[in-house]
Design goal:
The chain is of the alpha/beta class and 439 residues long. 39% of the residues lie in helices and 20% in strands. The protein is globular. It holds the Pfam family Amidohydro_1.
């Protein structure tokens, strides 16, 4: 629609002052033009009474291609999880299964309030993911997976450096800035275990030449770190820095096992960290030092990771876990609810390099907005909206999800999506894919 008014909610602006506003949010041509004040005439209104309106969640680490692996790789540690389940299934993907997996992910993400993602896909077929995302309305920064080593990886997932970079740059030329700017392309070397030094150095050079984000995994689990040390003779973050990757455009998922020196390195180079507490728990990886990293000025955002290692893509789960796990580590209140909502919105926008575009409800920002119902008995009395969002609300409490002013979810229903048919199709494609993978 060309414009609309969200009426009747408390607005959590997530601006620098964390202002809360009682009044309408006015959207025109995909942009927020007014927050509070009198309602203008001539625009349709959506009544969101009983809700809080805030920026849509920004998930900075997901794998859309893994959504139809949900439940197929449980109860394994990271390297076994990859080598025995995830890599064989990624290698078995075809265009149909990739499209359905992406559609399934988008449905869950939008319905539970995520409006932007940074996603690492598999080695082949990323153009199918991009086509699906462009049609979906979701804002996404997408990278095809880059990997060329690890003897345990299927041959289809190992691609030499030159063709890998050529394909990544072809995707950038075709898709970066597509769908009115909603779609962007990044480089996505999987992690140091499955990438040669030549590939990591080439990634750093291409990222510098084309000003691209680099999306990778780092220091997720101790076994991974031991492999990297055997390969490189140094720690994970030091190795990434040694290859030229440690810049403000490096987005490193997990960073569970990072010591003081590695944290200092990340702070010095403004490396972004994507915290995935649900995945870290399910894979038994550990508890990330989130409070310490944030105290150093490191930008720490949130992501669910993939459905193969979390089984949910709901940011409300990740917010609650992020807060409570730091309470276990360091004591209650060490990561307050307000800071967790900041991580889910403003820190995510900064990680994507979009902090002047999304992440707050302020005039001039893109209208990526959600309305979350805090009036129900499971949330009442909702005395503090930040506490309600982090500790009481669920994804099912999202009433409206809007991206670029386009209302994609209303009254909890995803527009133009037959959820039952989607689930049936996903089950069918998952069975076919697992058969191809020999699982």
């Amino acid at each position: 629609m060309p414009g609309c008014i969200l009426r009747g909610a408390t607005v959590l602006t997530m601006n620098d002052a964390l202002d809360q506003v009682e009044g309408p949010v006015v959207v025109r041509d995909g942009v927020i033009v007014q927050v509070g004040g009198p309602e203008p005439e001539g625009l349709p209104a959506i009544d969101v009474s009983g809700c809080v309106v805030l920026p849509g969640f920004v998930q900075t680490h997901v794998h859309l291609c893994q959504t139809i692996f949900r439940g197929a790789a449980d109860d394994l540690a990271l390297l076994a999880w990859l080598r025995q389940r995830v890599w064989p299934m990624e290698a078995a993907h075809d265009d149909v299964s990739l499209r359905v997996s992406t559609q399934l992910a988008v449905h869950e993400l939008l319905r539970t309030g995520t409006t932007s993602v940074l996603t690492m896909e598999t080695v082949h077929g990323t153009e199918v993911v991009l086509e699906t995302l462009a049609a979906s309305g979701l804002r996404a920064t997408v990278g095809k997976c880059l990997m060329d080593s690890d003897d345990a990886a299927p041959s289809r997932l190992k691609q030499p450096v030159r063709p890998a970079m050529d394909e990544a740059l072809a995707l950038r030329a075709a898709w970066d800035g597509a769908a009115g700017g909603r779609i962007r392309v990044a480089l996505a070397p999987r992690f140091a275990v499955s990438c040669s030094r030549e590939l990591l150095e080439a990634t750093a050079a291409v990222a510098d030449a084309h000003t691209l984000l680099v999306h990778t995994h780092a220091s997720e689990q101790r076994d991974e770190i031991a492999v990297v040390r055997a390969i490189a003779g140094m720690g994970n973050l030091a190795y990434l820095a040694d290859t030229g990757l440690a810049t403000s455009r490096l987005c490193a998922a997990h960073c569970v096992w990072v010591d003081d020196a590695e944290q200092a390195l990340m702070a010095e180079h403004d490396v972004k960290v994507m915290h995935c507490p649900g995945s870290n728990l399910k894979l038994g990886s550990g508890l990330a030092p989130v409070v310490e990293m944030r105290a150093r000025g490191i930008t720490v955002s949130l992501g669910a990771d993939g459905a193969a290692c979390n089984n949910r893509l709901d940011m409300f789960d990740e917010m609650r876990l992020a807060a409570t796990l730091q309470a276990v580590r360091l004591g209650p209140g060490t990561l307050p609810a307000r800071e967790v909502v900041w991580m889910a919105t403003r820190a995510g926008a900064r990680t994507l390099g979009l902090d002047s575009v999304i992440g707050q409800v302020s005039p001039g920002f893109r209208a990526d907005l959600i309305a979350v119902d805090v009036s129900g008995p499971d949330v009442a009395p909702s005395m503090d909206p930040y506490s309600s969002l982090v500790y009481a609300c669920r994804g099912t409490d999202v009433r409206v999800t809007m991206v670029d002013g386009d209302v994609l979810v209303r009254d909890g229903m995803h527009r133009d999506v037959d959820a039952l048919a989607l689930a049936v199709g996903a089950r069918h494609q998952a069975q076919r894919l697992r058969a191809r993978a020999g699982l």
